[in-house]
Design a protein that fits this description.
- This protein has three helices and nine strands, in the order ααβαββββββββ.
- The chain is an alpha+beta fold and 200 residues long.
- It folds into two domains: 30 residues; 168 residues, no CATH class.
- Strands 5, 6, 7, 8 and 9 form a five-stranded antiparallel β-sheet that branches. Strands 1-2-3-4 form a four-stranded antiparallel β-sheet, with no helix packed on it.
- The longest helix has 28 residues.
- 24% of the residues are buried.
């Protein structure tokens, strides 16, 4: 009787050990620890870049410049104005992006803020148009969209545009351990120059 009882107790201990071991293997198969996942996919630093995607000259052009921009580029330009003399008019599109990098050096996402503006004789012509968009470049990241935006004139020759987006790192077995809110502001001037600020 004692031997039978001892045997049954031994089998119970073995069963418990097997269940615990298999449970730990499942947790590992799900993707590893929080620290390992954040090291591989979490934001540790930022990078950025600027691209001038179009520069058009309308020197000596008289007519609807917005229509000319659409015809020349295929871009659905919403800036609208009409020149009244043969005055050189120029249009530029500038895109600035801010990106997040992991501690392993992988680029995870990019937030873009693009501004489209025209200028003539030291002044901006028409109202500049700006927009933002997000790129997801790594697993588990999601672009949640734009969360803040404001645009206004600083003067007849300067315009301000601010846009902020949201990205979330969401992993099934860890929830969403990281949210980031990159922002970029553009300042455009009537002499054609522009500069930006960034953060988040």
């Amino acid at each position: 009787m004692k031997r039978t009882l001892f045997f049954l107790l031994s089998m119970m201990v073995v069963s418990v050990t097997i269940v615990i071991a298999s449970g730990s293997e499942t947790a590992s198969a799900d993707g590893g620890s929080r620290e390992a996942m954040l090291k591989q996919y979490g934001v540790a630093s930022h990078v950025s870049g600027v691209t001038v995607t179009r520069g058009l000259s309308f020197a000596g052009f008289k007519g609807d410049v917005a229509t000319a921009v659409r015809q020349a580029t295929g871009f659905n330009q919403t800036v609208g104005f009409t020149t009244t003399a043969y005055t050189p008019t120029y249009c530029w599109t500038r895109d600035h992006w801010r990106g997040g990098k992991s501690s392993l050096g992988n680029l995870l996402w990019k937030f873009h803020h693009t501004i489209d503006y025209c200028f003539r004789s030291g002044k901006l012509v028409g109202t500049p148009v700006s927009w933002s968009w997000g790129e997801v470049l790594a697993p588990f990241w999601q672009y949640k969209g734009e969360v803040s935006s404001k645009q206004y004139w600083l003067s007849a020759s300067s315009y301000y545009s601010f846009r902020q987006g949201e990205f979330g790192l969401c992993i099934k077995w860890l929830g969403c351990p990281q949210h980031v809110y990159p922002w970029i502001s553009w300042y455009a001037y009537g002499d054609g120059s522009a500069y930006y600020r960034q953060g988040g």
